[in-house]
Each structure stands twice: as structure tokens, then as C-alpha cells.
Write a structure and sequence with these properties.
By secondary structure, the chain is of the alpha/beta class. The protein is built from six helices and eleven strands. The longest helix has 15 residues, at 21-35.
Length: 248
């Protein structure tokens, strides 16, 4: 996978100790509803591409947790803030330095689109889950949030804000500058775009059956002259997609 080591300090600062706005307001409330951790007798969660362990900080105390990430700096940050959980440095798209295969839950949160080989990552999740274990993916919506290939369009006459998609079906490796103002001197990460159908195929190939899929919109509200148009657009074009799957 591609490492965020070169932007680890920047990313750690953006996420903060409690997660960024969408972690707190949209992603975690909906994710925990889907996970239903309280229904598991002995919940055990594997967090792949865990970053600085923001998910671990929000878990109920009875959930056993292991986080894996390729960035040593983010793993150190995770250990500093989460002393009761286990964190391991490793590439989640390669063989993991982990011998446990009894996890009840696994998650890849806002990370699968930064991994060059999603299928191997999903196979790893399947390998370490118990039979009937559940996997949860949360991604920037691959239909509407394609870096450099999607944007807002505004029809001033009709007062309509819509989403323009320039490319969708083609797999893309898209460079992302952490600090665009620095131009070529900015640290760069990569986003890997794939159409939604690829993810469903990979889940099947990895040994999963999809349980459900949800699309989550922003809960922000605009003010001013364009508020009606912008608020309507937010409700029509989701930011995130969540997929829950079960190991067969």
C-alpha cells in the first residue's frame, strides 16, 4: 500500500484527538449503529489502516482492539493516545504480523481508496475474522467524490447546484498534494479510484457476502443567498458510502 508517513504529522493534526468533523458527526455515529458491538458477547475488532487510532478512542471499554498501519509515526501516535489497545506496524495489503483469526469485526475506515491493492486487503480482513465475522468499509463515495475528476457545477439561472463527473469507470491513480499552496514542494499521497462494482466483486472474491450498503450525506448547513441551493445539493450527493459484509 502507499504510506502516509510523509504526511503523518499533517494528517495527525487534521484528525486531532477526537476525529475531524465528519468522524464525529457522520461516520462514527452511523458506523457504530451498523456494527452493533453491544450485541456481540466478546467483541474483538481489527482496524486495518488504523492511522493514529481514532476509532480505538471511541470504542466501548469491553471491545478488544488491534490496529494495523504502515506508518510508524502514526502507530507511535496511536500507542501514545491508546495505551489499552494493541497497535502493529504493517502493510495491510501484505501478510500481517498477526496470528489471531478470531476477530468478530473488522473495519477499513476512509483508507481503502489509498491502498493500491484493495483485494489483498479484503482477503487479509477475511483471513483474520472468525466465520460469520463482519467487515465494515467506509469510503469517500466513489461515484461522486473522485479527486480531480468531479466537481460542483452551478446553474445560476435555475439556482441549482449539481455534481459533475468527468470520469468514473476507469481505474485511476491520483496524486494528492497535502499542501497545494506549496506546489511541487508539497508532500504527496495517492488516491486510487475504482468504480463501485469493483468493490463488490472484490468482496465476493475475498470470501464475503454483502449485508448492506448505506450512503451518508453531510449534515452541514449553509447560510446566505445560496443556502437553499447548497443545502439541497448536500442531501442529493452523499459524501460517504458504507458497506457491511459477512465472512462466509
Amino acid at each position: 500500500m502507499t504510506s502516509w508517513e510523509n504526511v503523518s504529522s499533517w494528517y495527525d493534526k487534521i484528525v486531532g484527538k477526537e476525529g475531524h468533523y465528519y468522524h464525529r458527526r457522520v461516520i462514527f455515529p452511523n458506523l457504530f449503529r451498523l456494527m452493533a458491538l453491544e450485541e456481540a458477547k466478546k467483541p474483538k475488532l481489527l482496524d486495518l489502516a488504523c492511522g493514529q487510532g481514532i476509532l480505538a478512542r471511541c470504542l466501548p471499554p469491553n471491545v478488544k482492539y488491534v490496529g494495523v498501519d504502515i506508518s510508524p509515526t502514526l502507530i507511535r501516535s496511536a500507542k501514545k493516545e491508546n495505551r489499552s489497545h494493541q497497535f502493529i506496524k504493517g502493510d495491510v495489503s501484505e501478510k500481517l504480523p498477526l496470528d489471531q483469526n478470531d476477530f468478530t469485526h473488522a473495519a477499513v475506515i476512509l483508507a481503502l481508496q489509498n491502498i493500491e491493492n484493495p483485494l489483498r486487503t479484503l482477503k487479509n480482513a477475511c483471513k483474520h475474522l472468525k466465520k460469520g465475522g463482519r467487515l465494515f468499509l467506509v469510503m469517500n463515495h466513489p461515484c461522486f467524490r473522485i479527486p480531480r475528476q468531479s466537481a460542483w457545477d452551478i446553474d445560476r439561472k435555475k439556482q441549482i447546484q449539481s455534481r459533475r463527473i468527468d470520469r468514473y469507470m476507469s481505474p485511476l491513480k491520483i496524486p494528492i498534494r497535502a499542501n497545494p499552496a506549496k506546489g511541487e514542494k508539497s508532500a504527496t499521497t495517492y488516491s486510487f479510484h475504482h468504480p463501485l462494482s469493483d468493490y463488490f466483486k472484490w468482496l465476493s472474491d475475498a470470501g464475503f457476502a454483502v449485508e448492506t450498503m448505506e450512503e451518508w450525506c453531510s449534515d452541514k448547513k449553509s447560510t446566505g443567498k445560496a443556502a437553499k441551493m447548497e443545502n439541497r445539493a448536500r442531501k442529493e450527493f452523499p459524501l460517504f458510502i458504507a458497506i457491511a459484509a459477512i465472512k462466509l
